[in-house]
Design goal:
The structure holds 2 protein chains of 2 kinds. Chain A has 11 helices and 18 strands. By secondary structure, chain A is of the alpha+beta class. Chain A has 2 domains: 264 residues, Aminopeptidase, CATH 3.40.630.10; 111 residues, Alpha-Beta Plaits, CATH 3.30.70. Chain A has an 8-stranded mixed beta sheet, sandwiched between helices. A 4-stranded antiparallel beta sheet of chain A has the order 4-5-18-17. In chain A, strands 11-12-10-13 form a 4-stranded antiparallel beta sheet. In chain A, α2 crosses α11. Chain A is globular, with a radius of gyration of 23 Å. The two termini of chain A are 34 Å apart. Chain B is an alpha/beta fold. Chain B has one domain: Spore Coat Polysaccharide Biosynthesis Protein SpsA, Chain A. Chain B starts with a helix and ends with a helix. In chain B, 46% of the residues are buried. Classes of the chains: A alpha+beta, B alpha/beta. At the A-B interface, α3 and β4 of A face α3 and α4 of B.
């Protein structure tokens, strides 16, 4: 099949044929998934995974491939016209340390392994896309920029995506962020966010006889209690996630240091700011009450922003999802999407398949729904390329 | 051939063969066909991944392999279903040459593959490798494509997870180091150049496979090495470093049985190799101990190490492959 599309309906009419080609590439996609999944890529150490991605791009005949100084892996499929470019990106890093066993297991209907859903699958889709487009006989008008984004998660704070958008010379018309899970996910807005780390330090000669204030854990506990007592509004939607706590070394050793990682999310920038001020007060208060050193390190911040629900990109994506019998699960994003939107680039985040046990050793993705996810991605790409997602000036 | 010279010239690292397109050119120039054989018995955990990687990388992307076949000993798990679902040709060992009967053992599958598969080169890869990668096949096939005199290329694995000094011990598993290497050192010092003589991964030309017998059990690798050495000499061998191999660890008692089978296969070749051993006087019973509380009891396991004859002696094979 090789054609151009005059309307979104024509694209939708072609989805069964597109699916057939997607299914025919099952082994290619799964092999990419296995090989990518078995390369450890904790944030700041994505190099080997990005090298593999670039090798795949070269093997697919992409002439313009490179990694930039921030560690992003980039491949460009030139379009027929020079003025439009679509950015397709998937973050290359995972939450797993390189010391973790990264063996991937393949079964008839699912694959499991650490990071397989978040986001080895997203990266495998990028690695497979040039082959898929070639097999579909599709030559896009727009140039396609494929990017494995480095330094996205946690302390990476989207550094790779930000670096690319701040330094690249190619104009980007629209963007699609690819996440392994969940199929049906549709993000077109980013939430306001503040990501922070609280560190408590007590001097080693701390008086262990003083009841109720012994060691860093109890001080951290006090910080947690105080954070939990911050009143959160129902509207605009706001939440505080206490993500991890680390402190202590054994049964009878008084811990001198402890850390708490948390994230505040809200649809309102004002509320994020208000909570930030409250957090500062809490730190100061607990420090003065206990005599310990309590510091708050803000690791990342995002301003809420997004496309309106009536934006053509959102409408056409919903239309395509509906034709694939996918119920859009609309969720605000705090990842790469927010950087694209902050740069004025209309973008959405899409999930590829169903998965479970996210961020566990046996993180799992289902195989069959992947093809629906791929069809959805190709269709949205075609819709953007055809200009059906453009907003009139 | 001088052993040091052989080690220098016939030992490779898989990274030397990264250019698979060049391998395919060489294969086409020589008009060769290549088969990959995965012998299996209850390998549902790893077989899917192996087939996906080999099929995608060495058939669909780079057509180095002409067929991928699973020869199964009668798995009771999902091995055959998974293998077929991912596009391998799946055969039950018992269905191949049914007129010669069925024997249980990995060697039986390897032997029947010689009849069933069509390749001029057959590459055998165990199906229980957790860190499978296309190099496990192309790293072994490549030396055969680039060296016409080479006939039998074995894998070895050498990249410890962590090692702090410049020199590190390099070698095979426990059975290799405490049985096979001492035996080779005593009787066939040339063969000590093989770093892992018992590795389950090797690529071999059909002209060799059809002319050597196959012990059906533990002794198959050892007997192959002795038979190929006797007929074609040390220069027929190559070996490739495939870095690291992650697989199941075997218990010591299982290794004891393996060692027994290997010894029988070795001794069975003694007369033809110029050593004087009367096999009829040797026991076929391997005795081991197990303890229940304070009581020790001896277990007996009969390991006969039956052998299948060279495939070329079968009329069915000569007819199928047009050998006069």
């Amino acid at each position: 099949m090789s054609r151009t599309y005059a309307s979104i309906e024509e694209i939708i009419g072609d989805l069964p044929a597109i699916r057939e080609v997607c299914v025919s590439l099952r082994e290619t996609l799964l092999a990419n998934l296995v090989m990518i999944g078995e390369i450890p890529a904790p944030t700041f150490k994505e190099e080997a995974r990005v090298d593999f991605l670039l090798q795949r791009f070269s093997e697919c005949g992409l002439t313009n491939t490179s990694s930039d100084e921030c560690g992003n892996g980039l491949g460009i499929l030139p379009g027929k016209t020079r003025d439009r470019n679509i950015l397709l990106l998937a973050h290359a890093d995972t939450v797993f340390s390189e010391r973790r066993d990264h063996t991937v297991s393949v079964h008839t209907d699912h694959i499991h392994g650490p990071g397989i859903a978040d986001n080895s699958l997203g990266l495998a889709v990028l690695a497979t896309l040039p082959t898929l487009l070639e097999k579909l006989g599709l030559e896009l008008d727009s140039g396609l920029i494929l990017m494995g984004a480095a330094r996205s998660l946690g302390r990476g704070d989207l550094e790779g995506t930000r670096f690319f958008l701040e330094n690249n010379k190619i104009p980007v018309t629209a963007g699609i962020c690819v996440e392994g899970v969940q199929l049906g996910r549709l993000s077109y807005a980013s939430a306001g966010m503040l990501r922070g780390e609280v560190t408590c330090r007590v001097p080693e000669e701390y008086d262990w006889i003083r009841r109720g204030a012994t060691g860093a854990i109890l001080i951290l506990n006090e910080v947690i209690n105080r954070i939990l007592s911050i009143s959160l509004p129902r509207r605009p939607k706001t939440s505080i996630v206490l993500g991890s706590v680390e402190a202590g070394a054994g049964f009878n050793i008084i811990p001198t240091e402890g850390t708490l990682c948390f994230e505040v999310r809200s649809e309102s920038a004002e509320i994020v700011q208000q909570i930030a001020l409250e957090l500062d007060d809490i730190m100061e208060d607990v420090a003065s009450q206990t005599g310990a050193e309590v510091t708050l390190d803000v690791i990342a911040r995002r301003e809420p922003a997004g496309l309106p629900i009536g934006h053509s990109l959102v409408k056409q994506t919903r239309e395509i999802m509906s034709s694939l019998e996918l119920l859009p699960h609309i969720t605000p994003s705090i990842s790469e999407l927010s950087t694209l939107i902050a740069h004025g680039i209309p973008a959405v985040t899409l999930g590829i398949t169903d998965g479970e046990r996210l961020h566990e050793q046996r993180e799992t993705v289902k195989i069959d729904p992947i093809f629906t996810g791929l069809v959805q991605l190709v269709a949205v790409l075609l819709a953007i390329d055809g200009g059906f997602c453009d907003e009139s000036e | 051939m001088n052993l040091n010279k052989w080690i220098k010239e016939n030992t490779f690292h898989h990274s030397q063969f990264w250019d698979i397109k060049q391998l395919i050119e060489e294969k086409e120039k020589q008009g060769l066909t290549i088969s990959l054989c995965l012998p299996t018995l209850n390998e549902e955990k790893t077989i899917g991944k192996e087939i996906i990687l080999f099929k995608s990388e060495l058939m669909d992307r780079y057509p180095l392999l002409d067929e991928i076949a699973v020869i199964d000993s009668g798995s009771t798990d999902q091995t055959r279903e998974i293998a077929a679902a991912y596009g391998a040709d799946v055969y039950l060992s018992a269905d191949i040459l049914p007129q010669v009967g069925e024997k249980k053992g990995k060697g039986e599958n390897l032997w029947k593959a010689v009849y069933q598969l069509k390749g001029d080169i057959i590459c055998y890869v165990d199906a229980d490798i957790a860190n499978i990668h296309p190099r496990f096949a192309y790293g072994l096939i490549a030396p055969l494509l680039y060296n016409k005199e080479m006939k039998y290329v074995k894998a070895f694995y050498d990249r410890p997870l962590a090692f702090s000094h410049g020199i590190r011990p390099s070698g095979g598993g426990r059975v290799t180091e405490i049985l096979v290497r001492p035996l080779f050192s005593l009787f066939f010092p040339d063969l000590t150049g093989l770093i892992q003589p018992l590795s389950g991964e090797y690529a071999v030309r059909r002209e060799v496979l059809e002319k050597i017998p196959f012990p059906i059990g533990y002794g198959v690798e050892t007997s192959h090495i002795l038979d190929v050495y006797k007929e074609w000499g040390l220069e027929a061998f190559g070996q490739t470093d495939l870095d690291q191999r992650v697989h199941r660890n075997q218990e010591t008692l299982s290794l004891g049985k393996m060692a027994f089978g290997i010894l029988r296969a070795f001794l069975a070749r003694s007369a033809s190799m110029g050593l004087d051993v009367d096999m009829s006087k040797l026991s076929s019973i391997m005795r081991q101990f197990q303890a229940h509380d304070e009581n020790y009891e001896q277990t007996e396991c009969e390991i006969v190490e039956e052998e299948r004859p060279p495939m070329i002696t079968l009329p069915e094979y000569r007819e199928k492959f047009g050998r006069d």
